[in-house]
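Final paragraph of the annual report: two paired records, presented back to back.
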Amino acid sequence: YQAGSAPLQVEAAAGHATQQPDASLKGQAAVKALMRSRPIGGAYYNVHADSLPCLRAVLCAGLYPNVVRSDESEERRTPRFEGPGGASVALHPSTANADIAKF
């Protein structure tokens, strides 16, 4: 090694350099700073824990991602259902719930 030359690179047994560039270290420091800025503890993440409708919606969305919403404003033989984005969804006539007028 000579003074003024490039930094010494130490090769590991697998042939990879173990010394990291300064940019990588700066990136790691930025990630650590970001992680520290987020609150730690249950109170922050449980703000809506007392809201039963919110809890039901979260559980339903996680367990049943293809669930639709029924429109109960009209009394019909077969209720209307709305899918994502307001798309209209119909029950198949042979399904067990096809004859149920209200859910």
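The closing record of the year follows.
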Amino acid sequence: MAAERGSFPAFAESRYAEMGEPPLRNATVTTVAPTGTISMVANASSGCEPLFGVAFTKVNVLGGKSLTQVNSLFLKDAKRRGVYSEELMERIAENGGSLSGIEGIPDDMAALYRTALEIPWEWHVRIQAAVQRGIDNAVSKTINLPGDASPDDVRAALTLAHRLRCKGITVYRSGSREVEVISTKAKAGGAEAGAGAADGATRSGLDDLCEPPTPRGRKPYTVDDTLWGRLQPIDRPETLCGITKRIATPSGTLWSTLNLYDQRPFEMFCQIGRAGTDIYAFTESIARLISLALRAGVDPSEIARQLRGIGGAG
């Protein structure tokens, strides 16, 4: 192709020219792309990623059912060696998808099927760097860090990746998002205890609940019974002016319109995806609630503070 159409524009300044390589049409020809969902469908490994978990859950962030994935190689190996049972799989799931400490698992199997969080972050980076040496473009790889990882750990991972000449790096601290695309089954002791406490409060009745607490750094609550539950939004004029912005997201293009009234934010319209999908309905619902709050006189910065930082899978 280079002979017919010429090399890529920066070929003369590239390392290929320095090494005396013949002209190339494409600046890059190889990469390790992100293949998370595709690899699950194909029942194959995901690029150069280690095993995330012997058993883990794949969340459908656009709605629908979540899927539980069990490593097929482990299943075959466990059955071949006579250690497989449904009870064993339940214990592995309760153990965060790890074989570590599971009774009945041979030591060599536990060592072979080590999961992403059991491998030190330094070796995640070094494996990526080893693959990067034979790849033109970037390598898709997640450096998994435990939930208690410090900012210094993140800094060290980024610094090592730069020193080893990785073209890109993704660092993820376990549990840092409320909704994770893939996750292992967590032990629910704390959550169950919280649910029990809530049930107890419900049974005791509203009259037995304590007085409303005082927000930290603010004055105590004062409730005007003449206004409580009676605040009404301003009626919408027939014509309003505003701005529309197009925002690229992992789930598609988001169209967001903010209309003004008397030079103040007054209402919002948001649209993403196709009509009838969960994400379309959810986005429209949030925009309606924002509009209601704005028309009722709620401070826009307070609305932004409540919504800012809410994480998702994309």
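The beta strands are 55-58, 67-70, 142-145, 170-173, 182-183, 241-249, 252-261, 264-271. This concludes the annual technical report; the extension proposal builds directly on these records.
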